[in-house]
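User: Hello, can you help with two protein structures?

Assistant: Certainly.
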Amino acid sequence: MATITKRKNQTAKDRSRTDAATALRRLVIPRPDILHTYLEYKQINQYLQYLEQRYPHFVHVHILGHTHEKREIRGLEINWMNSENVELSPQIREHLPRLFEIGPNGRFTVPVIHVGEHCRKTVFIEAGTHAREWISISTALNCIYQLTERYTRNIEVLRKLRFIIVPLVNPDGYEYSRTKNPKWRKNRRPHKSTKFVGTDCNRNYDIFWNSGPSKINRNTYKGESPFSEPETRAMRCILDRMSSNLLFFLSLHSYGQSIMYPWGYCRDNPIYWRELSSLASSGKSAIKSYNGREYRTGSISCLTKRTIAGSVVDYVYGVLKVPMALVMELPSRELGFQPPVEMISQIGHESWYGIREMCKRSFDLRHQIVREKEPPLPWPARNESSNEGVAIQSTSTPTEETNAAGGDFAKTTTKKKRSKRTFRSQHENIVRLQKSLKAREAQDLPEGIQALQPGLFPRQMEPHYPPIKRSGLSRDGQGGGDGVILTSRGKSTISSPVSLVLL
């Protein structure tokens, strides 16, 4: 009642001023909890808008493109050293570039292209390419959180580097994974004249794309052509534009618990693999010193034990010639693609320690890597690639199916029709082999050799050694032995008789 009376006693001018203040308060964007839950697509965009509103002098949101289901793909630029940053002195600001530029279409903004000797200082981080890898999106949001809401603790990195972070490359697949199928990996663009939906965006980039898996029903399907997907086209536009400014590219995935460098499409190592290995090792050491978690480091094809064609990391490093590019596979098999919400904050913080250290290390290595005069890219091996346009002849049956490099298999596999006769013949061979082994057990074996028990390997058997005779001269010529050569443990070595038993 008192409030109504007070409202009546206010003048029209006072009421209008109060209404304006109320409307202004309604424009304030609430902050989602990024550290303790998996956010929806709308909440992720809401967090980016919240940061842009709170830190307008060094944070800006860019719209990179739209998906098949008309969702926006957004990237956040964090650029401390710009002419609009009021926390810098006027003398420094007048020599710095603007925070952003208006795009050619006049609707969206684009990052500023830096020129000069110090143009390569941008770190690009992308996540959420695979829909089911929720933890990669939360980790990218944690990186944004560290560089914005906790910028005073990371001011050293912000003064040296500019960051462009795309926390969710595949929003359509992510929303489908959240609401319907948690194991969904691809995007959600349907393929014409088929019942199948989706393409693996990390096989759709134009670097030896033909080597990728061409079966449309596979989780790693490469698409109809390079950059056939709206998500990869949006990434291509921003990466091609920023290629001259990029210093370090990082792609976040899960759950291999490893930090990997190119190449993925072939078994060769790049020329600067030692520098890339040093960069990966710096992140590995930082995470281990933080909480003891042990990451693996190495090339993509080596650690995954297969070749992966058409990936974004190979495209950035091989085609755009960015000095440094890595893949960070977050932990771990025990936690899966979507760890419990209690682990989001821990994984995000420990990953940031490694990512920050790799950013610092990349700044130190910027003068040691010169990509302009490199030789042409190595070609995939013949048995790993169909990119050369040469049909690989085969003497196998017509039911053969070739899985080229870039998928789950790195070699050609053959599918043969199995019949009851095939199983019967295999069973007969096994029975015949068992009878021959039993017959062999009855034979007299050399001294010190025991028959191999069914189901045991030689390493599982207790060793039995012949007694050492004490007659004759020993190796030192003083007597007391028969000259038997001894191992470091004082036991005789047995070579040829064992191989006879195993045949």
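That covers the first. Now for the second protein you mentioned:
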Amino acid sequence: MKFLLFTFVGAHLLALNSGKAIWRNDTSQRTFQEIKEEIARYGDVAKAIIDLAVYGKAQNRSYERLALLVDTVGSRLSGSKGLEKAIQIMCQNLKEDGLENVHLEPVKIPHWERGEESAMMLEPRKQKMAILGLGSSIGTPPEGITAEVLVVTSFDELQKRAQEARGKIVVYNQPYTNYSNTVKYRVQGAVEAAKVGALASLIRSVASFSIYSPHTGIQEYQDGVPQIPTACITVEDAEMMSRMVSRGSKIVIQLKMGAKNYPDADSFNTVAEIIGSKYPEQVVLVSGHLDSWDVGQGAMDDGGGAFISWEALSLIQDLGLRPKRTLRLVLWTAEEQGGVGAFHYYQSHKANISNYSLVMESDAGTFLPSGLQFTGSDKARAIMKEVMSLLQPINVTQVFSAGEGTDINFWIQDGVPGASLLDDLYKYFSFHHSRGDTMTAMDPKQMNVAAAVWAVVSYVVADMEEMLPRS
């Protein structure tokens, strides 16, 4: 059976490679019906990838590879020894997997450490509170900051109560609507509190669900605004304090944070390829980020995305496939600090932007996929819908909008089509940036399906006779 599969795939490749490139100045000489028929011919190859990933010898491989790394290394914060160890291990793994052009591209990345931290409510009663300092936050004085609390639910309320905020610790109890709307309180909360004279800020964790779990993440200071310590607290404590003040209770908290910022550290983006057979200079990029926060194992964010991206190349290689264009795997460094590694890669490679057909990023979990988020021209979207139809055997065929991701946005903003994997975001943001981001949150069968989607899409787009059309 294995021999028959390889024979078919080889014949398929020879047939497709016999045509000439007809892409000129983003205008196809073929009708959409002809492109549709070309994509339909990949049905058997797509089924072979699905069978190998979901039912065959490769099933659970991405899960097992991920578990080995995160159990060995643990969390991988920007600037940490854990991240650099993971990068070296992955570089060796990719070489041993037989991938081509495996190399490291150096990047300078932020180095922040949280140190010891605590929050104790002193009034109206004593209670130790769970916190996680936010990335790049400064620390408190050694004795901590002891102050009364002002609880607000929005920036608008903070402005209206600005006179009350001076000399206090601002607690944000903002309701969770969705991540993109709510995360601004984590990112900007310290700055807005400092503008009205607060001594520190505590932000309700940006989470879809909580079992007394604080969630960390990056925050940003602003030039000309005093820097104050800032941390996330649990949903439960934020709501409790909101109830307390509504009854007229005075709340006093002692906050201690040993956070420190250090000079930028040396790091690397990790790169591997399957070099294209016909247009090797043209690229389909698949990616995830290797760094994580310093709590949990970084298994879900973004170990899963990084490892299904590796798995996509492994599956294609196992089937003896070599697409016309180069499939390039990039494992980004320092994504959590704002896409530092990805921006460096973009700056280094943007001179060849016309050769990028599609940039793909998986960074929203590898639970059971519901489809692909895509940003590109209407013509490119129509083509992607046909490509996704090849995934009918596993019922993952939908194409949604908003394919952007932190690490691929630089390319998308310059007109390159971009795609992100979409799955259960409620579950994702339950574990996101928390101590619960461990292998226990992962499901090997769902990772198999995610890897199959990633491999089929990346291979077909890389092997089609034409690059995806741009606007």
